[in-house]
Design goal:
By secondary structure, this protein is of the alpha/beta class. The chain is 32% helix and 26% strand. It is built from 14 helices and 19 strands. The structure holds S-adenosylmethionine.
Length: 408
């Protein structure tokens, strides 16, 4: 929980004098050793907005890995944590523009405008509406849209309750927040606004709802009768969200969207869907490589489709590790050296014989804590290797591999 901005703070930050003050404060180190002096200097020049200035600069620095042009946003610590990463929001906006050309899009929980600025940067969208209950965030969104939206797409930003329709937009986007107090395990009705209410309020329109990656989408389909598309998205190896697409023209399907930022900053990736063939060998012997598919593919339950696409096979039908003679381009593969025992005593000897000093341990289907095991193995050698621990049928198996490498 960071500083609580007031509307007055935001008006100051959006004004000419506020912009200049932000330039000055962004030149301050704001480190633990300089903080007392920096706070004092900011207070002398800019009270009563000194805390808002310092918080904005700190939030912008924290935002650098998540939001594009982070040094131009107005934001709060909480809003930053809740914001969709720019790469994911831009990918969604591009897809919306392509699937619904000429549509008006309404983000009914727009917060500081993470999705709005990306929608307002897409060709082919007729208009963007953003609304939220929080006046402060909305005022920040107005600034962010002006500074960061790259096209003159007509945009309206207003305070409104998501559950009271305020537009006739063709496409509605929502990103319900987790109600405070709801723990890691939360129910759909603990979201705010609650997911079932959003789907009900806008039924008959295209509704796109961003949810936490842990959403039990199978239960949503089987128990709550959700029909539409479930999209699981990862960014640079981390699963970021489960997004539900429903409404006219949207068919029932599940897909995984894998987004990866290259070393040149360009975002690439791929998609796998459940329309694809999934006919793969499910009990194959281990091949030259073991491949650990991206978390989005695993979470979306599309490991077999991914394997079929790349000519890989499963080691076991219940386990997500794949094996084959080559690694799909851009993926991380582990070249198998030999099958090894899972007994710690034998493993210790085998690893010493291979002069292993650094070991990446990958586990699926066995109850093993990789960090604790690594400590107990007491590695002293000089080679970096990888150990894949899993089960085939009921039997635990281990594969000692070369350190993981991405196929180019
Ligand atoms: C997770 S945040 C949205 C983040 C946004 N997608 C982004 O990328 O910046 C959820 C937002 O929903 C808003 N909210 C919660 N309940 C609402 C309601 N009933 N009507 C409108 N907005 C609501 C909160 O104020 C919060 O800003």
């Amino acid at each position: 929980m960071g500083y609580e901005f007031t509307l007055d703070d935001v008006a100051f930050l959006r004004g000419r004098y506020g912009e200049k003050a932000l330039d000055v404060v962004s030149g301050m180190a704001l480190t633990p050793s300089s903080m007392i002096a920096d706070v004092e200097a900011a207070r002398r020049r800019y009270a009563p907005h000194d805390a808002a200035l310092i918080e904005t600069v700190r939030d912008r620095r924290r935002a650098a890995r998540k939001l594009r042009d982070a040094d131009q946003w107005l934001l709060t610590d909480d809003a930053l944590q809740q914001a969709t990463p720019s790469v994911v929001a831009a990918h969604r906006a591009a897809e919306i523009a392509q699937r619904f050309p000429g549509a008006v899009i309404h983000d009914i929980t727009c917060s500081i405008g993470g999705e709005v600025v990306e929608l307002a940067s897409q060709d082919g969208i007729a208009g963007v509406i953003g609304s939220d209950l929080d006046h402060v965030r909305l005022s920040m969104a107005q600034h962010n849209r002006r500074v960061l939206g790259q096209l003159p797409t007509p945009t309206a930003l207003l305070v409104a309750d998501a559950l009271t329709p305020t537009s006739t937009a063709d496409v509605v986007i929502a990103d319900p927040a987790r109600r405070s107090g709801a723990g890691r395990i939360f129910r759909l009705d603990q979201l705010t606004p609650p997911l079932p209410d959003v789907l009900m309020t806008y039924s008959g329109r295209v509704v796109i709802v961003k949810c936490a990656p842990g959403l039990d989408y199978r239960a949503l389909r089987n128990r709550f009768g959700f029909t539409g598309e479930v999209q699981i998205t990862s960014l640079d190896g981390g699963v970021r969200e489960a997004c539900l697409w429903s409404g006219p023209g949207i068919v029932d399907r599940t897909r995984a969207t894998v987004l990866r930022t290259g070393s040149d900053g360009v975002v690439g990736g791929f998609e796998v869907t459940d329309d694809e063939p999934d006919d793969v060998d499910q009990h194959g012997p281990v091949g030259r490589w073991i491949v650990d598919p991206d978390g989005a593919v695993v979470r979306a339950g599309l490991v077999r489709q991914y394997a079929a696409r790349h000519g890989l096979r499963q080691l076991d039908p219940q386990i997500a590790y794949l094996t084959g003679e080559q690694v799909p381009l851009g993926e991380r593969g582990f070249e198998v050296i030999e099958e090894v025992s899972t007994s710690e005593k034998v493993l210790r000897k085998t690893l010493a014989a291979h002069d292993c000093g650094t070991l990446e341990i990958l586990v699926r289907g066995l109850d093993v804590d990789p960090d604790a095991l690594r400590k107990r193995l007491r590695l002293k050698g000089s080679r970096s290797l990888a150990l894949v621990l899993t089960r085939i049928g009921r039997k635990g198996v281990g594969f000692l591999c070369e350190a993981g490498a991405r196929a180019r």
